Amino acid sequence: MNIIVIGMGEVGKHIAGFLASEDHDVTIIDANSRAVNSAKERMDVMALVGQGGSTKCLRQAEAEKADIVIAVTDDDETNLLAAHGAKSLGAKKAIARVSSREYLDGDSGAYDDVLGIDLVICPQILSAIEITKLVKSVGAVMVETFADNRVELIQLALNEQLKVVGKQLKDLTMPDDALVAAILRDGRLIIPSGEDEILLNDEVLVIGKIEAIPEVEELFGKKHRGKAEKVVIVGGGDIGFSVASALGGEEIEVTLIEKDADRCKFLSETLDKVLIINGDGTDMSILEEVGVNECDVFISVVSEGEEVNLLTGLLAKQMGAHKCVVLANKPDYKDLYEHLGIDAVISPRLVAANQVMKYVRAGSVVSSTILEEGKGEILEVIAPSTSRIVKKPLVDLNLPRGVVIGAVVGPDGVMIPKGKDTVLPNSTVIVFTTPGNRKRVEKLFKIKKT
Fold first, then answer.
1. CB 153 within 8 A of CB 144
2. Full domain range(s) for residue 378
3. pTM to 2 decimals?
4. Could you say which of 204, 216, 227, 341 has the lowest number of CB atoms within 10 Å?
5. Same structural domain, 82 and 153
């Protein structure tokens, strides 16, 4: 495809790099020549220095010939103008990123056909959705659902010596409806075979039927399945507001700490079932006052200053908070934060990039989820009736190392497949793969010519 990416910040670089690695024809645009040159040095793309929102610049980039134009600068108006302008010139599809909720209606985080733009995404709302998922599954680092919520993926940290540690996967007594699909170890993502061992401090990604997940969490020492009962949020900006609003309707005790008095007034008038505290979230006396030592999930989503979220999260963890989730605008900080003891890190920029990639890869691929900043990927794919993967025992497909079929959803329901199982036509197949194997996976689902 011919794709134009406008904005070479964290989101734009992430998206352009992925698309270029998949052999798309990518053109990047940014007003900052240094950002453009830096990106061009690291990826095989065409580059243009200019204002992405201007018609002149879009014409120079030949937006009228583009399959997709993606506008992800740090300025909402530029993104909307660029996406709208590209569509007006003849681009087939356009995507815009916005940070302000004022342009949007609803809380989905991804909106179709806004101002004639095919997709508008809001990283703040998408991040709030991810945090809310984590609150509703206290034992997990990450939670994703597939196949209309019939299949769930959870990421669990093995930070204590359990019976599963040191065992090969083939020797694990897993529920029949669940599978260890990937292991994160020392910054690497492993798509395992039965011979691989689980080690202390690994993080395992397990996929299975929704009803099998509680047994999985029990096996891996996470006994607090279900949503939290007490949550403390620091930061009453867009993300904190969205999380508190979502949780306020649940049977959860929610306290929100915000240091700006005017913002507190707005929050108290808008959030009926949330206790609003005007104060500094790094103040230990305030954290003690709100009972951080008793909270199931502590969330720090202050928008200004990366170090504030880290410091507040570490304070809460030291004071006894069961699980700490913090915001990190720079994706590169994620591994550092987790190494220091933070349970889960949410990067709005990475969340936004993943949402864009799902849209770009739509087609026979129902959805695409990026793992560990591109070290792996989960594909949810429809199996055409004449494709190679259909009606053939999985063991005979000779899948390369680095590819695992995690689940199959067909007319008979959800199946966590074994080697002798087969995929029926038009089933939804959930595949874990490394980037180098993605094309081989796609070949499995290609329609055979008759």
1. yes
2. 362-444
3. 0.70
4. 341
5. no
